[in-house]
Amino acid sequence: MPPGTTYPEERAELDRVLASQSFAKSPNLSRLLKYLCEKCFEGGTEDLNEYSIAVDALGRTADFDPGISSIVRVEAHRLRDKLSKYYEGEGARHPMMILLEAGRYAPQFVKRDEAASVEGEKHASGSSPPVSDTLRGGAFPSQAVAGDSAVPTETVKPGSTDSEPPASPRQKIPLPLLVVGMGLLVLGVVAVSWRSRNNSSEGVPARSGEESIAAPLATSDEIRILAGYSKQNFIDRRGKIWGADRYFKGGQPFTTEQQPITRTLDQTIFRQSRAGEFTYDIPLKKGPYELRLYFAESQFGPTTFAGGGETSRIFAVDMNGGPLLEDFDIYTSAGGSNIAYERVFKDVTRASDGYLHLRFRPTSREKPILNALEILPGIPGKLRPIRLVAREDSYTDHEGRLWSPDCYFMHGRFGQHTAAVQNTPDPDLYTAERFGNFDYAIPVATGTYAVTLRFAETYFGELNSGFGSKGSRVFDVFCNGVTLLHNFDIFKEAGGANRALDKTFHGLEPDAHGLLRLSFVPSRNYAMVNAIEVVDESR
Fold this sequence. Notes:
Blueprint: H1 8-19, H2 21-24, H3 27-41, H4 50-56, H5 71-88, E1 96-99, E2 108-111, H6 112-117, H7 119-125, H8 175-197, E3 223-226, E4 233-235, E5 241-243, E6 248-255, E7 272-283, E8 289-295, E9 315-319, E10 322-328, H9 330-334, E11 341-348, E12 355-362, E13 369-370, E14 372-377, E15 386-389, E16 395-396, E17 402-403, E18 409-410, E19 413-416, E20 432-436, E21 438-443, E22 449-455, E23 474-479, E24 482-488, H10 490-494, E25 501-508, E26 515-524, E27 527-529, E28 531-536
Antiparallel strand pairs: 1-2, 3-14, 4-5, 6-7, 7-12, 7-13, 8-11, 8-14, 9-10, 9-12, 15-28, 16-17, 18-21, 19-20, 20-27, 21-26, 22-25, 22-28, 23-24, 23-26
Helix pairs in contact: 3-5
């Protein structure tokens, strides 16, 4: 990819599409589209294949086998169909279109004026519409999709019911276009070679683990780094892009065993780490930030090969020369091994030199570790609101607020019902639930918080599958041991089934480990919750 290319028009079109109502209701397809386009902007289409897309964009685990699952081809079909319908309706007036050709994973950006001027020629020759000038040639090499014409739709994950007819047979390529294509392919190879020779100027992670190459000043207000990660990008369940390890000095990359990590749906974030004594020097623009450090203790614990547990790994973290975490024990803070744990800090600012300096230093025999870090623009004196919905994908409510997929939970099960929920402008927020005997450990910074729990009884009721009525479901809810709800009966308090009921509690504070622990304990049948909202009300 040529140096210094930013593709402002193409990025603007991608932003318009992702912000549209059509794609706001399809977070999985939005995540896939964003991943494919970002790969193209970076010149990384040579890395696009079913495995990388499944793991990096669709959240599949490292043992994903494209020979068994056709989820990538299915989702590509759905995305292609979604884009087509979008540009026929909501995006009909856009100056540019994003196309995903049948049998390809690399998207094309097509200018409408050029497409219209050659419409007749396109139909006559069978060629594709012209791509925007900045994206012609080797910047977007096409990637063939094996077996794309025969996609068994029954392998789609539950909830993904849309389907698309099989791709049409490949058209023959005219000889002149073939010659031009070969020439562009050569240019693409040259560009890739140039890119590999100049990796040192792009802040690519150092394989030795001693020091990353100096990276340019941050161009984005949001920074997400996977410590010890050597690939280009990972897109999480929220649709957020995580980059490879950078800005570090010291330590070594470390990969953990394939043990399931609880309290997260994004296993990739906790599969690798940086270990040792190391620092991060991250360039930031001026302003307050929110810092999130991600950890999981996968080496020590009674169920691990090394054994141990509490006190096995204790270390300190300094920020800009001052203490941030002292005598920090991941195992103790998380509550065990192989448990995702986040530590959150608000009102974080850069040092006088324009960098945020983080130092991880040992205070015991074992080395410090870090799985990931996230830096977000902050709200002075406040933590950004946390909104969770008991679903496997994101949800955007009627006010345009994004609710993240279910996270931070331990135990319980996911359930979904089809009942139409009343008494709310957002009925879809209440159609899925977590039920059982479970808890959430929600990471927050020091302060006081308002927690809103959202409920709707969509299982019991005369018209629902569980029948029953008042008294069919009774449970308690606690926050850090303090009772919030006792003998709580959703059906009774809401005035019947399929009615939204929200309960808000003020003045809640995190425990010593920076967590709001919400426990849902059943008395009769199972406890349940549809969504959780946490808002900082510190003064």
